[in-house]
From TrEMBL:
It comes from Pelomonas dachongensis. The lineage of its organism: Bacteria, Pseudomonadati, Pseudomonadota, Betaproteobacteria, Burkholderiales. PROSITE patterns: PROKAR_NTER_METHYL. This is Prepilin-type N-terminal cleavage/methylation domain-containing protein. Pfam families: N_methyl. Keywords: Membrane, Transmembrane, Transmembrane helix. It comes from the Bacteria. The chain crosses the membrane at residues 12-33.
Amino acid sequence: MRLPRRAHGLTLIELLLFIVVVGIALAAMLRVFTTSTLASADPMIRRQQLAIAESLLREVQLMPFTWCDPTGDANVETATSASGCASLAEASGPEAGQTRYGPTNYFDNVNDYAGFSMAGIRDLSNTAVTGLSGYTASVAVAADTLDAVAAGSGDALKITITVSGPDSSSLVLQGWRTRHAPNSPL
């Protein structure tokens, strides 16, 4: 007489042991995910900082880069150096009374943004952008060496945008603006 074959499958003890092992593994993984989420910066704040920095960098890079003040000098189109300006050579920082916010006497050159900062993000019409009052932004513009262009030539500017978020985190974004021709507005 033959003994009956043992049934294939899991016993109750094997099933319980499997549930305990899987439960311990899932609890450990959940703890790792929770810890890493709590320790990481808020991704929304980081994305907002990056959007602000990119927008401000683009705004600065799109400004004319001329030897003379674009709105105050008759030789702005023909000057090949600062000495070729009729009355007002462009210098680092805004001219007297200039502001980023229009409609009149607004920044008209890349150099005008040197030293600019704002607490609470504002658009070009000086209107506060909703939800961004806890952010600050600052701009630094300085002549620098870029590949074969020497810093002393004044033909390459390094633009550094620093944005701080409401959680005191900071993001720095850098870009360049070069003078393609002596009097190039772009």
